[in-house]
Amino acid sequence: AGPGQAAMYAGLQELGVANGEDLKETLTNCTEPLKAIEQFQTENGVLLPSLQSALPFLDLHGTPRLEFHQSVFDELREKLLERVSAIALEGKVEERYKKLEDLLEKSFSLVKMPSIQPVVMCVMKHLPKVPEKKLKLVMADKDLYKACAVEVKRQIWQDNQALFGDEVSPLLKQYILEKENILFSNDISVLHNFFSPSPKTRRQGEVVQKLTQMIGKNVKLYDMVLQFLRTLFLRTRNVHYCTLRAELLMSLHDLEISEICTVDPCHKFTWCLDACIREKFVDNKRARELQGFLDGVKKGQEQVLGDLSMILCDPFAINTLALSTIRHLQDLVGQDTLPRESPDLLLLLRMLSLGQGAWDMIDSQVFKEPKMEAELITKFLPMLMSFVVDDHTFNVDQKLPSEEKGPIPYPSTIPEAFTKFLQENRIACEIGLYYILHITKQRNKNAFLRLLPALVETFSDLAFSDIFLHLLTGNLTLLGDEFTLEEFCTSLFDGFFLTACSRKENVHRHVLRLLLHLHHKVAPAKLESLQKTLEPTKQSGEAVKELYNQLTEKLELRKPSPAEVTETPSMELPLPTVPTPASR
């Protein structure tokens, strides 16, 4: 028997059941092989008296004994598997597990036998606590480990963080890659962007579903995953890990896994915030609920702020808080109210501040809410409101009958303090960027060009972050017709994008994405110079080269063929207009 044969019979000898080796030995040491075979068959066949007379019938029909035994075996195995699953549900808890443990003890020696393995695995799957010794044997054998059910793997993982880490790590990498692929997607649209999918849709993603299944109801494994996410967030500052932290908790919430939800102190806060993210707005009722959770953090439990800050650092949470802030500011303009007089607005700032401070809090392990700078509320936000007022004033002016002095121009300068705030204050920068996204979405070209210079230098280069550029490129498609104007292109490309293109590869990618989408609108002379400027260097990554090649191909297709160019005679004189039939 070769190694394959040996595996087929693994463990039979320990149970005192004859196997292929025994038959080989019998035949080697006997004088009458046929008699020896017959005896072996009688001793090891199915011991049913009524069967002995029926077997010759099968011989007459040419059915091999192997086929018969195999079908009996398959039938019995199915029955046994059904029985194991039934035992796991019947009788008193101790009794049923005692039966299964006895069965495991008897059958475990056959675990490597392919035909019996499913039964052994099934028994283990239904045991809430597989004996330690058996788990170690499974863990030590790659094939067995691979074959066992996730219920058994959970028992192995909970005491082997490194092994669990090896299983989770590729999933986390895949998750980050999926997020980045959406941010750099070639489909640029104001309607379908990174933040379009609802929380419930996002939680159906492959990685979240796999992690949810791996964790089951096991609090220890859930805590391990959270620890991995915290560590990776600290190591990389990548905010998508914060999204996964919230999505995982809400995925367990969807399945009503109270064993975990009730012990995660962030559960109710995350649930409430999840509803706000779904609506892309924090309404007054939920605002009060969220405030209640923050105010309810008791002395000695401050560590929960680290987790809450991570939940608030999720870009989907920041997006919701920032959009709500802009909406509140507009409402305050209409109500003649100052920011400091609006408790709702102050709560939004408090949560933004907590979210933006997540990395520092987890890094320093100092769990207290970051202090809000008074000037953010007394100077910066009123300044943003004054921009809203400038727009209203300009629009009203445009509608008034113009007097001799001519139309009033749109204010072109920005207060120096605005630029300074965007450079030095993280919350101000975040809100300022969302205000710029807001005016772009409103197709407000004047306001956009006025504030654009402030984006060249921002806090921690936030204006060149992928999420902002992904949203900005989407919103710029609404200003598509402005790209025909050289002046607009110079302000946008030379004044903003190209200032960072050479030092930041991601900016290079976003500019190419935008041009791939809008190249047919861009002023030809400008397009030509951009094509030269954006040419990849030796240091450029594959993604940039690929995008640049796509752009070059598109531009080649647009060029008229030489034949067409020569055939068109040059007309110096203006042609007389000939009325077409339709216009008569």
Report the principal-axis shape: elongated
* Global Rg: 35 Å
Largest sheet: none
> What fraction strand?
under 5%
Number of helices: 32
The N- and C-terminal alpha carbons lie at a distance of: 98 Å
Number of strands: 0
Q: Class by helix and strand content? A: mainly alpha
Protein name: Negative elongation factor B
Keywords: Elongation factor, Protein biosynthesis
Pfam families: COBRA1 (PF06209)
Region (Disordered): 558-584
Provide tags for this entry:
584 residues, elongated, mainly alpha, 0% strand, Negative elongation factor B
Question: How does this structure look, described?
Answer:
- The protein is mostly helical and about 575 residues long.
- The protein contains 32 helices and no strands.
- It is elongated and about 125 Å long.
Provide a short characterization of the protein structure.
Keywords: Elongation factor, Protein biosynthesis. By secondary structure, the protein is mainly alpha-helical. Helix content is 67%, strand content 0%.
Write the layout of secondary structure elements.
Layout: H1 3-8, H2 20-28, H3 33-44, H4 49-60, H5 65-87, H6 93-107, H7 117-125, H8 132-140, H9 142-147, H10 150-157, H11 161-183, H12 199-203, H13 206-215, H14 219-236, H15 240-254, H16 258-261, H17 267-279, H18 284-295, H19 304-313, H20 315-335, H21 343-356, H22 358-364, H23 374-399, H24 416-424, H25 426-441, H26 445-451, H27 466-476, H28 486-501, H29 505-518, H30 524-533, H31 542-558, H32 562-567
Organism: Spheniscus mendiculus (Galapagos penguin)
GO cellular component, one term: NELF complex
GO molecular function: translation elongation factor activity
